[in-house]
Design goal:
With 561 residues, the protein is α+β, with helices and mostly antiparallel strands. The chain has 3 domains: 175 residues, 2-Layer Sandwich (Formiminotransferase-cyclodeaminase, Chain B, domain 1); 162 residues, Formiminotransferase, C-terminal subdomain (Alpha-Beta Plaits, 2-Layer Sandwich); 205 residues, Formiminotetrahydrofolate cyclodeaminase monomer, up-and-down helical bundle (Four Helix Bundle (Hemerythrin (Met), subunit A), Up-down Bundle). It is built from 17 helices and 13 strands.
Length: 561
């Protein structure tokens, strides 16, 4: 598997206990012990005698957390005594993994299989895989796997067609079995209408939802096919479930929506389609609300969508994109919308102090202190971010320049490229310091016996290679920004040509500064197979950046004679 350092997945295990909070708290305490995981929600139900727990984090950490939680549930929940209204077949009934960001569904499936294998081996619980992780089509649907529930599991598990995917085909009387899989993220989303009529809200819901509405004849009687089954007229949006209801608290009707695949049908498409159908039926959408958390991607894409409709540049900051999305969809109509509380990725952000979150004065003071970090690598990355930011600024100003309206998309594309460079270079500001800390930690390992010495040497080498790769990546991103600066100097808003020139100077500083860090960290590893090709490319970028900077400089000076 590749490096999943920046990947985020969600895990939503359902435990067969909803009354005894002492048991629930012991299970969730296991989750909270795992570094790199954030417990987001615990939702117990007494009638169902079931608790839905939600946590997110790095895929490896999430798998670790799920394993310990499922083991603890197996220890504390005795299915022989369980009663509840909800279908269930085990102490941990179902445990889906959901890709949030930086990871594909196919990769999430591999983590689900990893989890299933570990649960069977470490907890002794039989495991079935479902949804995208299913081993066969007939096992894809959770209801089919769970058919017969716990009470029928003893007879079912010994049948060849229902042999567990992981673990023994033996009935675990205490814990039952667990269903593990990978599925898409579900966004719970309500659209607000200027009506109190549930029937009219339902008319919009039936228009947009994938299932649609029952097909009826001229007299309003439901039509059926030759097999006596109801005939349905499909709705407009795939992967969308919806129903209308009246919310007494707000005094309005809403279209309540579950969006099961935000990539097939994006959030902003749901909103716009609901607006269109409400207007067609004499109503108006006044706003909307997100229930629970939402992946950052959904809001960023919505922000870009609404900016494009205005023919404005989408190459703006994350904060601005989110602001546009919130205002365009009226996500703050019924209450304040705080992205720090509603966006999954923001919930996961470490509470530790980041260099990029400091004021400029604070960053400079921190650099000037007696500590060796932040050092030249972080400064080089910050220079690169400043340079890319200047190129992005020129692109945005050009996109909105009076008389250049027909070129808005051309410059918007440049600005979007620039924003991506800015974001990565800002991450590299802190990552360079993290790389230094990894080296210090490796040098701090014990070096007593031969085994410890070997482990310490290997750790130092791995940390040093990482500390080479970080400034090398700074070089690559800053080097790529020269094209942006050159284009903005040549074709961008002429009033900002000097800004493009300063951007090129910053890029050159970033490349050369990062080059020095690559060189000093690679002093003892010149011939290492991972390092040698990096050094060769670093030499090329170090030399060529002078040429590129001079090309931009020449264009700028010709324009400001």
């Amino acid at each position: 598997m590749r490096d999943f350092k920046n990947a985020v997945i969600e895990c939503v295990p359902n435990f067969s206990e909803g009354c005894n909070m002492g048991i629930i708290n012991q299970i969730t305490a296991e989750v909270e012990k795992i570094e790199g995981v954030r417990l987001l929600d615990v939702d117990p139900g007494k009638a169902t005698n079931r608790t839905v727990v939600t946590f997110v984090g790095n895929p490896y950490a999430v798998v670790d957390a799920a394993v310990v939680a499922i083991k603890k549930a197996g220890e504390l929940i005795d299915m022989r005594n369980h009663k509840g209204e909800h279908p269930r077949m085990g102490a941990t009934d179902v445990c889906p993994l959901i890709p949030v960001s930086g990871i594909t569904m196919e990769e999430t499936v591999e983590f689900a299989k990893m989890l299933g294998k570990r649960v069977a081996a470490e907890a002794g619980i039989p495991v079935y895989m479902y949804e995208y992780a299913a081993s066969a089509d007939y096992r894809r649907n959770l209801a089919d796997i769970r058919s017969g529930e716990y009470e029928g599991l003893a007879a079912k598990i010994v049948k060849p067609e229902w042999k567990p995917d992981f673990g023994k085909a033996e009935f675990n009387e205490r814990s039952g079995a667990t269903v593990i899989g990978a599925r898409n993220f579900l966004i719970a989303y309500n659209v607000n209408l200027n009506t109190t009529s549930t029937r009219r809200a339902n008319s919009v819901a039936f228009d947009i939802r994938e299932k649609g509405r029952q097909k009826k004849d001229e007299k309003g009687k439901a039509l059926k096919n030759a097999q006596g089954e109801t005939i349905w007229e499909p709705g407009l949006l795939k992967c969308t479930k919806a129903i209308g209801w009246f919310i007494e608290e707000y005094g309005i009707a809403q279209v309540s929506i579950n969006l099961t695949n935000m990539y097939t049908t994006p959030l902003h498409v749901v909103f716009d389609t609901a607006c269109e159908r409400a207007t067609a039926r004499g109503m108006r959408v006044t706003g909307s609300e997100l229930v629970g958390l939402v992946p950052l991607h959904a809001l960023l894409e919505a922000g870009k969508y609404f900016l494009r409709k205005q023919q404005r540049s989408v190459g703006v900051s994350e904060a601005e994109l989110i602001k546009i999305a919130v205002k365009s969809m009226g996500l703050d109509e019924l209450g304040p919308f705080d992205p720090q509380k509603k966006v999954i990725e923001y919930q996961l952000r470490s509470g530790g102090k980041k260099l990029v979150d400091m004021t400029v004065a604070g960053f400079v003071s921190e650099t000037a202190s007696e500590s060796p970090a932040p050092g030249g690598g972080s400064i080089a990355a910050s220079c690169g971010a400043m340079g890319a930011a200047l190129g992005t600024m020129v692109a945005n100003l050009s996109s909105h320049k009076k008389g250049w309206d027909e070129r808005w998309e051309e410059f918007s594309n440049y600005a979007e490229q620039g924003q991506a460079m800015v974001r990565e270079l800002l991450e590299l500001v802190d990552e360079d310091t993290n790389a230094f800390n990894k080296i210090m930690a490796a040098f701090g390992l014990p070096k007593g016996n031969a085994e410890e010495k070997a482990a310490r040497t290997a750790a130092i080498e791995a940390a040093t290679i990482y500390a080479i790769k970080i400034p090398f990546r700074t070089m690559e991103v800053a080097f790529s920004s020269f094209e942006l600066e050159k284009q903005m100097a040549a074709i961008g808003n002429p009033n900002s040509v000097s800004d493009a020139g300063v951007g090129a100077l910053c890029a050159r500083t970033a490349v050369k500064g990062a080059y020095l860090n690559v060189k000093i960290n690679a002093q003892s590893l010149h011939e290492h197979p991972e390092v040698k090709p990096l050094l060769e490319k670093a030499e090329y970028m170090n030399t060529q950046c002078d040429v590129l900077e001079q090309e931009v400089w020449k264009i700028v000076l010709e324009k400001i004679k």
